[in-house]
Amino acid sequence: MSITSGLNPKIFYSTEADPEMEKFNTEIEKTLSKLPPLHSLPPQVIRDAREQGQSIWGPFKILDEVEERILKGSSGDVPVRVLVPEDIKGVYLHIHGGGFMLGRAHHYDELMAAIAKMCQVVTVSVDYRLAPEDPYPAGPDDCETVAVWLAENAGSEFGTDRFVIGGESAGANLSAVTLLRMRDRHGFSGFCGAVLTYGGFDLSMTPSAKSWGERPLILTTPLIRWFHESYVSEDKITDPDVSPLYADLAEMPPALFTVGTLDPLLDDSLFMYARWIAGGNKAELAVYPGAIHGFNAFPLKAAGRANKKIADFIRSCFKASDRCY
Predict the structure, then answer these.
(1) Which residues are catalytic?
(2) Rounded to the nearest 10 degrees, what angle do helices 301-317 and 19-33 cross at?
(3) Which domains does the chain have, with CATH numbers?
C-alpha cells in the first residue's frame, strides 16, 4: 500500500506567492495599520461604514433582479435573497461571513449573480441574525430554518431537489453546522456539496489563529477572539454546534475547502479537511500561496483562480449521479 501526501510543502514557501499578491498584502497591511482595530469599535459603527461603502471591502451593488423573501421559522422570520436564473440545475444555499457579527446578504448580490449565471443555480442567501445583539444560537437557527424550507419546498418552487451549501469565514462555519443539524435533527442528507471557504471551524482557536498576533491582514488574533466572545459563551465554545471541527462528520457531502497560507484560519481548513476525509467523505483542499483572509473578494489573479475552482466544483456537484451521497 502506498501513502501519498495531499499537500505540496512548496505552497507554504514565501517564495511561492506571486508578486501581485505580495503587493496587495503590503497595501492592505499599510491601510489597516492606520485605522483603529475593528474590535475597538461598536459593531453598528462598523456595519454603517460597510453600508456606505467605506470599508476595506469597498462599495457593493444591490441588484434589482434579486427577490427578497421572508421565511417563517420557529424563532421568527428569516429574510432571504433569491436569484432565479433561466436554466436551473440546482440550488446554492449561501451563508455570508463576517465573524457572526457583521455582513448582510445583500452585500453578496453580485457574487450570487455570477454564481447563478456560471453554474445555472438558484441562489438563496440567508440574512441571519447577528451577534452580539442576537448571539448563538440565533444565527444557526436562522440558517437551519432556510435549509428546512428548501428541503420541503425547492421542488415545487424551483423544480429541483439538488442543493449545494456554502459560505465564507463564519459562513463556512454556519454551513457545516447547518449540514450537521439537517442530518441529526431532520434526517436529511440531501446536499450534493459544500463550499467551505476559509472557515473558522474551531472557535476555541486553532494554533494558527492563536499565534497570528496583531498583523492586520484582515484578521488578527484579538479580532477573532472578539468575534467569538461576542457570539457564544465560553462554556459552549467546543460544542459541535458551535465548533463543527469537534462533530461526528459522517455522511457529509463532498466539500471544497479554500484557504490562503497567510490566513490566521489556515489551520481550521487544514484540520477540517482532514476530519472531513476521516469521516468517510470526499473533499478537496485548495491552498493559495501568500493569500490572506478574504482574498477572493478582491481583483487578484489568485482570486480569479479560486472563484473559478469554486464555480467548477458547484457545477460538478450537479453533474453527479442522482443520489448526492
Answers:
(1) 169, 263, 293
(2) 100
(3) 12-317 (3.40.50.1820)
